[in-house]
Amino acid sequence: MTTWGFIGSGNIGSTVARLAIAAGHDVVLSNSRGPETLADLVSELGPHARAATAQEAAAAGDIVVVTIPLKAYRDVPVDELVGKVVIDTMNYYPQRDGQIEALDDGSTTSSELLQAHLPQSHVVKGFNNIFFQHLRDLARPADPAGSDERSALAIAGDDAAAKDTVRRALDALGYDTLDLGPLAEGWRTQPGQPAYGTQYAADESDWAAGARRAGSDEVAGLAVRAVREV
Ligand SMILES: NC(=O)c1ccc[n+]([C@@H]2O[C@H](COP(=O)([O-])OP(=O)(O)OC[C@H]3O[C@@H](n4cnc5c(N)ncnc54)[C@H](OP(=O)(O)O)[C@@H]3O)[C@@H](O)[C@H]2O)c1
């Protein structure tokens, strides 16, 4: 059994936690306000979930998901994550996160910022370009990898072993994986790009209307159409 730690337990964090529990894992959740504020979510998720501080969640996780507003990435515990696989779901929204010059001028990517903050961890970008309700609804754990029923999630990372760990973890959650390459390629699935989530929407103008399957070929075809405007 694997323990998943969560730095952030909002829309995406709680959805990934739900899928991880369904796959037979334990989860340790955290947020900015303290474990007591997660009591309702923990009770809803059941005995395989508990709440903790961010430091405790980082220390407890075999895999740790960082899923907070990007502006708070420097708050992510460093020492507790040394040597670990860290999945980064974060996106850059200047209106929420403030202007970040190194992202505005294209000299780096948001996941590389997190990797620089966690120099001894293995950051893998994942879950960043799927609306949380689609992530919940498209999971197909009972279907084998490559099945026509499955959707694919894009990942990026600089460490091949860490990406393989994430690929196997996503497989258990019910998703195929599309490897975009190193973290520097992660911009291809950022906000505003063709692969930023519409592929999973039944209705592109109303993401709450439901989900549709998108496999590896479709996601790959959208990712190569990305254009960097800097
Ligand atoms: N929503 C989506 O469908 C979606 C899809 C893909 C990627 N994303 C990206 O994933 C990230 C999370 O999105 P979300 O929609 O899940 O956000 P959300 O619902 O607003 O949840 C954010 C979570 O982060 C916690 N948090 C904030 N600052 C923190 C800190 N300094 N330390 C620890 N925890 C902190 C919040 O805790 P408190 O409530 O206690 O502050 C909350 O649990 C964002 O970067 C977003 O752009 C979102």
Automatic annotation (TrEMBL):
What are the residue boundaries of the Pyrroline-5-carboxylate reductase catalytic N-terminal domain, all occurrences included? 5-92
User: What keywords is this UniProt entry annotated with?
Assistant: Oxidoreductase
Is the Lipoprotein keyword given for this protein? Answer: no
Protein name according to UniProt? NADP oxidoreductase
Task: Name its species.
Answer: Terrabacter tumescens
